[in-house]
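F.,

This is the one I mentioned.
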């Protein structure tokens, strides 16, 4: 996905499909326009959910500063609050928790995760959708410990959830999520790590102890995940690497990016999936020693919905990167930064002689949204049809100036956004925001 992770695509035969903003709210003194959800045809998206009352930060029902240890663990109460809000959002979109096909979580501390899992199991019951949990530096609400985004369907006929749990792609028992889900022609694979059967790092995915150059950790892990996790998961759903359409890559060290891409490109053709590579905190992943986690979205090999690579002149920052893919009524765009082939675009580089007379973050956003609009135009849609936006900032103080650029482009629009803070640097020096 690019700047918007997803864009709803209106083909000629789908003109009757519309985008509906669900439960729009204004946040804070500056009245930031936030869409709690978006309904687009048979899809419902809810992005950036935290336990906020939208005016005063974290809800008093979650955090009582005077008695912070009163009652259940704070993170469990926080998760309960989020799931109640998600239930309301999904209900307004004519669906429910049982129809979620993907759930992503960001946390600033690992201590919140187990408490969150307790609440999640209680909310979902037997079916927990494919999940990716990542530790990051910070969230938009300073006291918040959980940020959740989901993607759901409105089932009809064959377009319904088929839960798959292949033996060789197991999920940790304490998490309880489903490894692979199929909905019509779409396949959703939970975040995958180079775990062995015991849940620890697989021996073959690690450089042998006491050796320095018997392989490279990032290459060994990436190879293991692709061969031993992604391929079997896709196969169980009737799909394959050739039909991957979207992937998010989480790296604990941004300097591993080229090493990852070396292996990723070896397994994928020139029409590989759109990809977003996101740095994590340290520790950032659920298994000690892991350096990369990969989640994926694909199409079944023999379905009616076909993968269509969009040919554009937009540069995303990596060699041989697929910029955009249309799959049925969705358009996926790779992660975007304000870069050209020389790195950070010149208009976003601060002038040391006059450092206070321009805004780098706003220049970056204008470049990124310009790229996104151009990609949408190539694909036959517009930026107005965005249904999911994830912003990865190296400094969350830049969120509001970036939001102002969104409003320049889509004035008055309630946006389905999430914003989290990731460690410096991003893969392109000088860039301080990555949009997915």
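My design for it:
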């Amino acid at each position: 996905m690019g700047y918007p992770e997803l864009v709803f695509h209106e083909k000629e035969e789908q003109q009757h499909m519309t985008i509906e903003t669900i439960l729009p709210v204004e946040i804070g003194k500056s009245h930031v326009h936030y869409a709690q959800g978006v309904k687009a045809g048979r899809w419902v998206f809810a992005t950036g959910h935290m336990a906020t009352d939208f005016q005063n930060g974290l809800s008093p029902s979650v955090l009582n500063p005077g008695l912070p240890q009163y009652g259940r663990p704070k993170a469990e109460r926080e998760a309960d609050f989020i799931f109640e809000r998600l239930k309301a959002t999904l209900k307004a979109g004519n669906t429910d928790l049982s129809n979620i096909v993907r759930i992503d979580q960001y946390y600033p501390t690992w201590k919140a995760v187990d408490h969150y899992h307790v609440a999640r199991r209680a909310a979902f019951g037997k079916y927990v959708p494919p999940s990716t949990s990542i530790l990051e530096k910070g969230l938009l609400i300073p006291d918040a410990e959980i940020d959740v985004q989901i993607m759901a369907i409105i089932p009809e006929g064959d377009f319904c959830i088929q839960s798959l749990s292949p033996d060789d792609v197991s999920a940790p028992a304490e998490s309880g999520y489903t490894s692979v889900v199929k909905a019509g022609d779409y396949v959703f694979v939970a975040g995958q790590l180079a775990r062995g059967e015991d849940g620890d790092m697989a021996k073959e995915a690690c450089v042998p102890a006491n050796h320095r150059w018997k392989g490279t950790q990032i290459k060994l892990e990436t190879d293991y995940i692709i061969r031993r996790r992604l391929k079997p998961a896709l196969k169980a759903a009737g799909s394959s690497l050739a039909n991957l359409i979207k992937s998010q890559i989480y790296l604990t060290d941004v300097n591993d990016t080229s090493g990852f891409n070396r292996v990723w490109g070896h397994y994928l053709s020139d029409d590989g999936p759109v990809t977003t590579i996101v740095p994590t905190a340290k520790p950032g992943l659920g298994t000690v020693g892991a350096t990369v986690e990969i989640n994926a979205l694909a199409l079944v090999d023999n379905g009616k919905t076909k993968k269509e690579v969009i040919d554009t002149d937009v540069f995303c920052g990596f060699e041989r990167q697929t910029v955009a893919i249309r799959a049925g009524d969705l358009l996926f765009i790779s992660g975007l930064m304000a870069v050209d082939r020389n790195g950070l675009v010149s208009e976003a580089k601060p002038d040391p002689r006059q450092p206070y007379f321009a805004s780098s973050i706003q220049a970056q956003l204008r470049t990124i949204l310009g790229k996104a609009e151009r990609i949408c135009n190539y694909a036959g849609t517009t930026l107005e049809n965005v249904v999911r936006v994830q912003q990865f900032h190296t400094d969350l103080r830049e969120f509001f100036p970036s939001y102002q650029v969104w409003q320049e482009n889509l004035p008055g629009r309630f946006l389905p956004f999430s914003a989290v803070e990731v460690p410096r640097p991003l893969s392109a020096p000088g860039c301080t925001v990555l949009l997915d």
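Confidence is low (pLDDT under 50) at residues 10-15.

Talk soon.
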